[in-house]
Amino acid sequence: MNESMKLWAEQHITTCLLPFWNSLKDREYGGFYGLVDDNLRVFKRTEKGMIENSRILWFFSQANLHFHDQLSLADARHAFAFMTGCGIDRQEGGIVWSVSFDGQLLDGTKSAFNLSFAITGLCSYYQASHDEKAKVLALQLEAILLAYFKDGNKGYKETLNRFFAENSATLLKMQKSAHSGQKSLQTQLHVLEAFDSLQKIAPTPKRKQEMEELCSLFSSMQDADGRFAIFFDEELHVINDYRSYGHDIETAWLLASLSEELTPSVHQEMERLSDKAITNCFKEAYQMHSLIDDASFPHLRPHWPQAEAVVAFLQMAERHPSEPQYLEVAKDIWSFITTYLVDNRPQSEWIYAVTDQGNPVKGQPIVWPWKGPYNNARMCFFMLDH
Asked: What pLDDT does residue 168 have?
C-alpha cells in the first residue's frame, strides 16, 4: 500500500478522530453525547444509542491496541462502564436499544444487530484491557443471541421486544429507505463479525461451525450480477427490490476477511462472492471519484460507502496484484474522502454525506445514534494493518 495512505491514516486517527470523540465524553452521566449537528452544536441531553456506544468502545479499544496509549484505554473503559451500567438489561437480559442522556431506559428493543456490535466491542476491549468481565459478558450476550435470535438454519431474526417476544413494530429499527424485513443482510453479516471477534479471544469448534453455516447463506443472497439482496422474510426469501452498493461492498470485503480462518472451501466461496460484488461495484457504482450507494439517488455520496469502498478495493488489490486498477480506485476514493468528507472545521470529524460534486448535504448531523467512529475508523485501521 502507498506509504502516504498509511501515514495519513495514523495522523487522522491521532489528530482528528481520537480528540473529537474524547471531547464528547459525558463525565457527568457517563457514555458519550449522542448528537452533534452540522453546525457542530453538541446536544448533551439527547438519546444515547447502545449501537453507537458499542462502536465507540470498539474504536477506543482498537486505538489502544494500535498505539498503546493510556488515554484511549481510559476512554474505552468509560464506554465499557456505560454499557455495563446502563446498556445491559439487568431484569430481562441482553442489551437495550437506547437510554436517555442520564442513563434511564428509553427503548428496550432487543436486536441481533445491537447484540453483535456489543460483542464485537467487548472482544476488542478485552484484547486491550484484559478485563475478564468483558470476556464473560461477551459470551453471555452470545448465548442470548443463539437462544433467542438464531432461527435454525435460516439465519438470525432481526428484532424482538424487550421481553424477547415477536413484535413487528420493532422491525422499523432497521429500516432503510422505507424498506424493512424480518431478516436482513447486514444483521447476518455482523453476527458473523461478532462470532469472528469471539474466536479471537475464546475459540471453539462449535462456533467455527456456526460461522460456516452462516457463510453458506450468503451465496443465495447474491444475484447473478453480484448484487446482494438486503431484506428477507422469515424463510430468507427476498421481499423487496431495495439494493445498496454500500452494503454490497461492505459485505464483500468482510466475507473474505471473516472467513480466513474457516475451512478452505468456505473461504474460497466467500472470496468468489467478494470478487463478484466488488467487480460489479467497480463497473456500476464507481462514478465521479466516489461510490454511489443507492442508485435511486445517484448524486448522493454518504460517507460510509466511501470508507467501505477504500477497504474493499485495497483488499481486492492485495488479492489480485496483477490488476492495478483496484489500487488506483482505492486511492481515488480516498482522495475524495480527504478532500470533501473530512470536515476541516476544528472539533469535527467526517461530514455525513456530500453530493458527487463534494457539496455537503445540509441538515445531516456529524454525530447521531447511527454515525460514530466505525466505518471511517475501520478504514484507517485497515490502512495501518495492511
From this structure: 81
